[in-house]
């Protein structure tokens, strides 16, 4: 490969691979040659730690940062979404925020995993804390930002396990979650929500999904996955839900008490409902936002 230097042929020592003489130019070129040789050897060692089969073309590409085989964040997202989506069902939103961050911070559409470091993660945290997502009442809370960073950390662990990167950039980063006491609804507040009527369809759907969750204890992910096959007739002659938790894959059966069954029947022929599912599809982000509108209308804090 060319190093973009030109010298007279008579002052080149082909045996020693250096420029003859003690001039300043000769010393500069020889120093540069030694630096390049050292860097090339370092490139070789890095490649050698990944694979036993190395060609001069691979060393050259690595030296110029043109490795076609180097993994990027998008490669990691694709691998995760194919093999691990059942573990991290909310990771796609974190991935969107990551791509927006590298576009804003580094003006690029993708990022090499080998370039990830502590500084990158700190920068992503700062970006998240200033973020005001759509359908959100304000900036992300501390725990909201930390959850996105947790999902990134879990994906990075996949990259480390697959030996796509040598060092975990999270080694010196500490995730700081704030402990909060979870409030709960009183029976009178739940009744307020049940009795609340609105002409806005999206708010009605969210209200029904929330009330259904209150009377069954089923999470958002599991509710969205419910189909008519999960509706079974129990030995008591009443309808039950029989399914598996998406996160744990543990089977469970529970009776449909209160208004739960009537809510299912309400959406039996709903135009926005997938023919195979019990309820219309809505994103978790929108559900949480619309739920806050319902709470405000019912004067529930």
Helical content (DSSP H or I, runs of 4+):
40-55%
Please state how the strands of the largest beta sheet are arranged side by side. Answer: 3-4-5
What class do helices, strands and sheet pairing give? mainly alpha
Number of domains: 3
Q: Counting H and I runs of at least 4 residues, what is the number of helices?
A: 11
Proportion of beta-strand residues: 5-15%
Span between termini: 68 Å
The strand count comes to 5
How many strands, which pairing sense, and closed or not: the largest β-sheet?
3 strands, antiparallel
Keywords:
301 residues; mainly alpha; three-stranded antiparallel beta sheet; single chain; 5 strands
Short account of what is shown:
The chain is mostly helical and 301 residues long. It contains eleven helices and five strands; from the N terminus they run E-E-H-H-H-H-H-H-H-H-H-E-E-E-H-H.
Can you tell me about this structure?
- With 301 residues, the protein is mostly helical.
- It has three domains: 55 residues, no CATH class; 89 residues, no CATH class; 111 residues.
- It contains eleven helices and five strands; from the N terminus they run ββαααααααααβββαα.
- A hairpin with a 4-residue loop joins β1 and β2.
- α1 crosses α2, α5 runs antiparallel to α6 and α8 crosses α11.
- The longest helix is centred in the first third of the chain and has 27 residues.
- The model has no long low-confidence stretch (mean pLDDT 88).
